[in-house]
Amino acid sequence: MRHSFRLFLVFGLLCLISSIAVHAQTLASKRYADSLYSEYNRRQRQGMTSDTATFALTYNLAKELRDRQPDSAIVVATYAIRIAQELNDSNALTRAHHALGYAYKNRGMFSLAVDNFLKGLQIAQQRMDTTALSMNTSGLGATYNEQQRHHEAHRYFALSIRFAESIADTQALQIAFNNMGYVLWCLQKFDSALVYHERALRLAELKRDSLRMAISYINFGVCYQSKQDFTRSLEYQQKALAMHRNFGNTRNEMLALFYIGWTYKDMRRAADALPYLRSAVQLADSLNMHSQLQNAFSLLSETYSALGQFDDATHAMKRYASIKDSLYVAERAAQMSAMETLYKTTEKDKEIRLLQVEKQEEARRRALYGAGLVVVAAFAGILILLNRQKTRANEEILRQKNILEEQAREIELANAKLNETNLQLEHLDNEKNEFLGIAAHDLKSPLAGIMASAGLMRKFGAHMSEDERIKSLQTIEQTSQRMSDIISNLLDTNALESGKMNLNPQAFNFAALTQETLEHYRERALAKNITFYFSSNFSESITNTDALVFADPNASAQVLDNLISNAVKYSPHGKNVYVRLKQYVQSNSQQTRIRLEVQDEGQGISDEDMSKLFGKFTRLAARPTGGEDSTGLGLSIVKKMVEAMNGKVWCDSETGNGATFILELPKAASLL
Fold this sequence. Notes:
Elements: H1 2-46, H2 52-65, H3 70-87, H4 90-107, H5 110-127, H6 130-146, H7 150-166, H8 170-186, H9 190-207, H10 210-226, H11 230-247, H12 250-266, H13 270-286, H14 290-306, H15 310-374, H16 376-460, H17 466-498, E1 506-509, H18 510-527, E2 531-536, E3 548-551, H19 553-569, E4 576-585, E5 592-599, H20 607-610, H21 634-644, E6 648-653, E7 659-666
Parallel strand pairs: 2-4
Antiparallel strand pairs: 1-3, 4-5, 5-7, 6-7
């Protein structure tokens, strides 16, 4: 027992020593960054010089700031590029572009990040600098991955691994393995991702690099979360959170908090997820990690919705949209600033060249005047030469003027494009405000109905009959379903707009899905005395595989649900709804498609309404005939889903003669 106790003490001392060492390393890193910043400010006050020591100072400071203070890193890295250009040092220039690229990536300005990594890569290729090639290909991969361009990211990460292996750079190789694991996770190849993260962890353990080990734990947790192994996921994420807090690494602490919250949300434990996501939002906001803050607000909105806290969910979604808009505006402003700086620099260089030409001309004139006092003949010859040179100088001045005018026109065109972008942003802002206004308006009425029914039951429930209580509960249930439908439409619209709705096309029986949907709405149709008529031109001797389509089953079910519910909703009492399923061959491509027609005997759609039928928030002249609700989002969701599945949807209608909605999806056999 004493032996076990001694082993426990030794293990505890080792852990304490390791913790103290890592904390000391973190403090040393912070002191190093502070000393760099102090020296940078001192040189700024005294006047910067373009020498190798100043470049080393600005480059190292940009690397230290790029994760924690990306805005400051952008300023310092830009200065490093200027010094490298003045020194004509291509080795320094490729590293300065790499530092600026990472600062822009961490700020969420991805196009500017890609531009700088490509410049660094081009210089490295010319110099055959393998280290710089590894650095810039890794940066390009990381930027493309954040833009959801995962296949491009995979290609550059593979190049980064190859370059790092060729120079046996352990640290670069460890980063490259983690990057490859992350992009494989994004491509949903979770087992392959774990293989690369394990390689990175082995290198970190070999170097006894606790910080890199903690980063690997975050990556393990994310992979196991995606494999639905939530116990392992939380185990690794909690371990990573404790280590990063101990290191004082608030950036990675924010990532660990975010993924723990995400894991709890996937486990449908929204109450447990909420404090972690709130903490992640606070840290991301304090660190100006705008891209991560945007993702955290999106997940926080979904968590609030799951808890029924819809005001908080709406507020989080507004913050998400605001950050998304601000990132777009900031990137465009930075691009315009870069263009303006380039224009001013070019203009200044041309002014200097013109002054040099004028000084040379003045010197020649003086020499000519002196020579004229000595000999008239020499004066005449030099005067002719001078006139020729003056003509050339005037022609050069005219050429430079034309170039300046052309650049002015380009600046004017850029300003016009910026104005166009501002108008688009204003349109998006108006659309966002309309979105929030409609959401608040449409949710307010059913929420008031629920509160009223619940209040009546609380006050008079003891005096109600069993039928009255059941009726009140049915009212609450139906009204809650209305709110759920509204929220689902809003979330679907947001997912489609942001590109986060992942479709999984596969072959399935579309006829069976159609009949299943009709059965689902048969009771609602009977309530309005509406009769369904279903017909198909598929021969009974042909097996059911003849009605296979190649599409996403869930999205197709949602599309069918919307079209058939609309037919019931807008049909008067006692009318008919005709649903026809047939095979159709396109004349231009000879591709076989399955066509569905849903025809009602309702009010029809006017020519004016037809032009805006599939738009967002559309409220048409035709109204539901049984007091049903409409958000104006259903048909816009239908159109985007159908087109994403390589299908088509349209409507034929005349006012007073009902409407026929036609849906076409690719037949599975024609795509095999």
